[in-house]
Amino acid sequence: MTPARSTEDDLEDIIGIATVFNDKYGDMPLNPDKARTSLRHFIQEGVVFNTPLGAIVGIILEDPFRDVTTLLEIGWYAEAQGRSGLALLKAFIEEGRNQGVDSIVLSTLTQSDPRVNTLLERMGFKETETAFTLTL
Questions:
Q1: How many CA atoms lie within 13 A of 27 on its CB side?
Q2: Does the N-terminal or the C-terminal CB of the chain have fewer CB atoms within 10 Å?
Q3: Between the CA of residue 11 and those of 48, 121, 123, what are the distances in Å?
Q4: C-alpha span between 120 and 122 (Å, rounded)
Q5: What is d(CA 105, CA 7) in angstroms, rounded to the nearest whole number?
Q6: Are 54 and 78 in contact (CB under 8 A)?
Q7: How do the pLDDT tens digits run along the chain, 136 residues long?
Q8: Helix (H) or strand (E) run with residue 87 in it
Q9: What secondary structure letter does DSSP report for 64?
Q10: Cβ contacts of residue 90 below 8 Å, gap of 6+?
């Protein structure tokens, strides 16, 4: 399954994917209107790819302290069947190269299958940070 660069025509499909992800892993309800507005922005200004089984969303940012440009993943989810997640990741990396970024930053959830982290390490990613969340 080859990922396609997303357009506004894909918006509702990506909202559906985000809803599945949020229902599975989220601890707060998804706001579809806010998600739609944000995804529209990322499609226009960022890097978004989708397949029928998943999507990856990111934005290119300039580091405020160093001369570094980063492609920051905002969301990445694919249904387990097939290799859609890997195909999305490869398209995302290739787009980062095409855009001339210096680094790509991805996050995984503590609930993610440990094989995802192993895959990322095999692809050259290294663990650089641990995030903590305090829900108020």
A1: 6
A2: C
A3: 10, 31, 29
A4: 5
A5: 23
A6: yes
A7: 789 899 999 999 999 999 999 999 988 899 999 999 999 999 999 999 999 999 999 999 999 999 999 999 999 999 877 788 999 999 999 999 999 999 999 999 988 888 889 999 999 999 998 888 888 8
A8: helix 84-99
A9: S
A10: none
For residues 59 and 6, give the distance between their C-alpha atoms in angstroms, rounded to a whole number. 13
Position 17, amino acid = I
Amino acid sitting at position 118: T
Q: What is the residue type of 34?
A: K
Burial of 20 (0-12, 13-18, 19+ CB in 10 A): middle
Go through the chain and tell me how many residues it has. 136
pTM attached to this predicted model: 0.92
Please identify which residue in the block is written with the tokens 């300039």.
62
Region of 84 (left: φ > 0; alpha: ψ -120 to 50; beta: rest) is alpha
